[in-house]
Amino acid sequence: MTAVSGTDDMRTLFGQSIAVFAALTGPSHVVESANPAFFAAIGADRARTGIPLAELLPELADQGFLALLDQVYRTGEPYTGRDARVLLGTGPHVRETFFDFTYEPHRDVGGTVTGIRMIGVETTQVKHAQRLTAEHRALLEQIARQAPLAEVLDGMARSIETLAPREVLVSVLLADPDGRHLRHGAAPSLPDFYNQAIDGIATGEGVGSCGTAAHRREPVIVTDITTDPFWTDFRDLAEQAELAACWSTPILARDGALLGTFAMYHRTPRVPQDTDLALAHLFAGTAALAIERHHIEQAKQTAEARARAAHDELARTVRSEQRLRADAEQRATAAAELTAQMRAAAAAQAAAPHPERCQLGGAAGCGAPAELKVADSWGDAAWGCHAHVEEAIINVRSVFIASEELGGLAAYLHR
């Protein structure tokens, strides 16, 4: 009677508690009784008593908890675990949970262990909150050290997919500068063909979850893609990618400008819980911070590149001006030297005596009177008769009449 009375007391104590409680009997740990919180934790479809725990929860076999029960039953020593990771369910329905728990041996009046009382508190939400805080802090540190945007967004998507209690596939699309189209930003778990297909989709009413969310500037929750009119043009694509639900949140700048969209996809139709919406809101804000920081850095780099280009162009202009000035100075010096040479040559020629006979007859010579003086641009000059002077003007480059007496070529032509 004592044992039964004690069990009844525990059932009464934990009947409405959020703490999980189960009374196990015998070496096979038959579930004698359990409170609603216990069955809610393991799944309402498994709310049965009178069967061994290993049969009720076969997934525990390889996780060490049944061995701990055997140890407590055998030794009579209680065991307490903190933040113990428990995988409940199997296959696609498996979910990760965490518990603080105690295995307390139950004895009969003679002191023999007859069963174990299991008491625990689920700490899954606390654990997930701790993980979320750590992941969020890591993302903020990445943004602060100006990590590449693609790296930040990819890391964010993977963090959310890891943190979410159920399978979720995250996508981030980035708005074009005109806000009319969305480009691929990050989607590590979506198939490549899907990412390529939606890269560049327009923003507008009825353009899937993301295009509509971007257009409305508010979240768009599509719980079943197969029936939602927003997905009419993309339903076959979603089916091919095995996507059944999509919740999209716009990513907005502090001034309200569209930066992109943050989407959470699911393999089965799903209605979001408050925790899902809070997660989307938090990371959409984080994505906005990363994207704005990226835009600021891009603008800074563009301005710096333009400043460098302007500086380089100015430097080229100054160097060209310096070369032109040096060339001009060289030409001026050369011109001054040439002028001096010409003046010296002219003075020398003026001092030379006027010959009596033509000097242009060549080897055969010419006995005609020397009547005209000719010269060239090199400063050479000679006297000759009319015939040989004309011949020289025709055949020798740059030759001109230099006769002071006739007043130059014009005087000669009109003589």
Name of the CATH superfamily of the largest domain: GAF domain
Low-confidence stretches: 1-17
Helix content: 40-55%
CATH C-level name of the largest domain: Alpha Beta
Number of DSSP E strands: 14
Query: What CATH architecture label of the largest domain applies?
Result: 2-Layer Sandwich
Number of helices: 12
Give an overview of the whole structure.
The chain has three domains: 121 residues, 2-Layer Sandwich (Beta-Lactamase); 175 residues, Beta-Lactamase (2-Layer Sandwich), CATH 3.30.450.40; 62 residues, no CATH class. The termini are far apart. The strands form three sheets. A six-stranded antiparallel beta sheet has the order 8-7-6-11-10-9. It has a five-stranded antiparallel beta sheet with strand order 2-1-5-4-3, sandwiched between helices. It has a three-stranded antiparallel beta sheet with strand order 13-12-14, with helices on one face. With 415 residues, it is α+β, with helices and mostly antiparallel strands.
